[in-house]
Amino acid sequence: MKTRRFQALLDELGGLTPIQRTALATALKAGGSADDVIALLESEFATAPACGHCGCEDFSKWGVATGLKRYMCKACGRTFNALTGTPLAHLHKREKWLDYARAIVDGLTLRKAAACVGVHLETSFRWRHRFLSSSKKAKATRLSGIVEADETFILKSAKGSRGLVGRAPRKRGGKPKKTGTSPDDYDIVLIARDRSGATTDHILYDLTAPTTAEVLKPLVAKDAVLVSDGRGAYAAFAHAESILHIPIITSRGEHVYRGFHIQNVNAYTSRLKQWLRPFRGVASWHLPSYLGWRRSLERLAEAFTPERCLRAAFRCEPT
Ligand SMILES: [Zn+2]
């Protein structure tokens, strides 16, 4: 194809929605690419080969089974392959894994991912949480400089908490019966972010000062400047730890105090909530995966590729 025509084609592809891109990638790869997936994961395994049962590094080759090289561990005497002991063990249809990872990178809902990749909804559910199992670990553990902190309330959903089939979800997003910020209706998430972009979030059991302090104490450097809203828990923490604290009292119309503000963390929260909207409510016990998923998308941007997503799931390590 001539360069100009190829460039025109690329320009058109740039205008595709995430769903269209996933569908196109799936169509182009029709016929499966299980070999690509196996090659990717076996090369990952080769970087730190060890028994998936006991972690021993002393083993011998033991043929091939279900398309994967098999090994025999000299310590525990059991056979294993590259996937043993990883979140990807015992999942079928390997030829669709990279397409499914693409659906994750594109932020598709369970149903859209299932339709685009061509798997059952329950498979989509299982794969999503296996593929994202490491994402919840990838969060900043230390924040320094100007640290903005704020809490947000995310509407709870019972969806997915007991499987997908045969029951109507109790709630599917929208508005809860009671307004307010009852822990029954919402998960409370404390989000903190410094000016380098390092970001972390923690689900709080309540809004009390001890709970907030427990989260912030290991996170916020002693010489940081903590900027938050006027909630007393932040002031109490900063006072106890002798950290400089700038409260922004929005109820008094304050948004900036001498150049300090919480607009970075608020913008992050807005993007998170807008991104969560199509999921129409997230079950509490899946919320850490979704929060980690969002952090990966923000932190890695274009570098968050299907291969990287799959590799992280395989390694059980943050993307
Ligand atoms: Zn072993």
What is the gist of this entry?
The protein is an alpha/beta fold.
What does the model show?
- The chain has eleven helices and nine strands.
- 31% of the residues are buried.
- The two termini are 36 Å apart.
- The chain has 319 residues and is an alpha/beta fold.
- It is globular.
- α4 packs antiparallel against α5.
- The strands form two sheets. Strands 4, 5, 6, 7, 8 and 9 form a six-stranded mixed sheet that branches. A three-stranded antiparallel sheet has the order 1-2-3, with no helix packed on it.
- About 4% of the residues have low confidence.
- Bound molecules: zinc ion (ZN).
- The site of zinc ion (ZN) has 8 residues, from loops.
Question: Which features characterize this protein?
Answer:
319 residues, alpha/beta, six-stranded mixed β-sheet, three-stranded antiparallel β-sheet, 11 helices, 9 strands, 17% strand, binds zinc ion
The global form is: globular
What percent of residues are in strands? 15-25%
Tell me the series of helices and strands, N- to C-terminal. Answer: HHHEEEHHHEEEHEHEHEHH
**How many separate helices?**
11
Strand segment tally? 9
